């Protein structure tokens, strides 16, 4: 019954990848709240989703990326961070 096991594993992996708790992986505040630096949720403190499908408060990920130790990688999966849909990477100077 290899197929069954494979299937089960796939489901397990998928579940593991899901953001089970809807909190920012950097500040641990909920996505519908603000980062730890802001007081009021809204446009001032938007969420950014990366190519790796991890989301963070914009302020959190920007702050994280600026730290040398981050190596500009997603703190959750260690992929190089790139905001989702931002093909116009050259435009940011
Ligand atoms: Zn945050
Ligand atoms: Zn903020
Ligand atoms: Zn990630």
Automatic annotation (TrEMBL):
Q: What CDD domains does this protein's entry cite?
A: RING-H2_APC11
Name all RING-type domain ranges.
24-78
Source species, domain of life: Eukaryota
Kindly list the places in or outside the cell where this protein is found, as annotated in its UniProt entry: Nucleus
Q: Which GO terms describe its cellular component?
A: anaphase-promoting complex
* Major localisation: nucleus
Entry-linked InterPro entries = RING-box_E3_Ubiquitin_Ligase, RING-H2_APC11, Znf_RING, Znf_RING/FYVE/PHD
Question: What's a single GO BP term from this record?
Answer: cell division
Pathway annotation:
Protein modification; protein ubiquitination
Identify a single GO molecular function assigned to this protein: zinc ion binding
Q: Which UniProt keywords apply?
A: Cell cycle, Cell division, Metal-binding, Mitosis, Nucleus, Ubl conjugation pathway, Zinc, Zinc-finger
Family named by the database record: Belongs to the RING-box family.
Q: What is this protein called?
A: Anaphase-promoting complex subunit 11
Organism of origin: Rhizodiscina lignyota
């Amino acid at each position: 019954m290899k197929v069954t096991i494979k299937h089960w594993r796939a489901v397990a992996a998928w579940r593991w990848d899901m953001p089970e708790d809807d909190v920012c992986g950097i500040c641990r505040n909920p996505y519908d709240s603000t980062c730890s630096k802001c007081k009021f949720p809204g446009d001032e403190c938007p969420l950014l989703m990366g190519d790796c499908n991890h989301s963070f408060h914009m302020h959190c990920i920007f702050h994280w990326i600026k730290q040398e130790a981050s190596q500009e990688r997603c703190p959750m999966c260690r992929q190089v961070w790139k905001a989702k849909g931002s093909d116009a990477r050259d435009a940011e100077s």
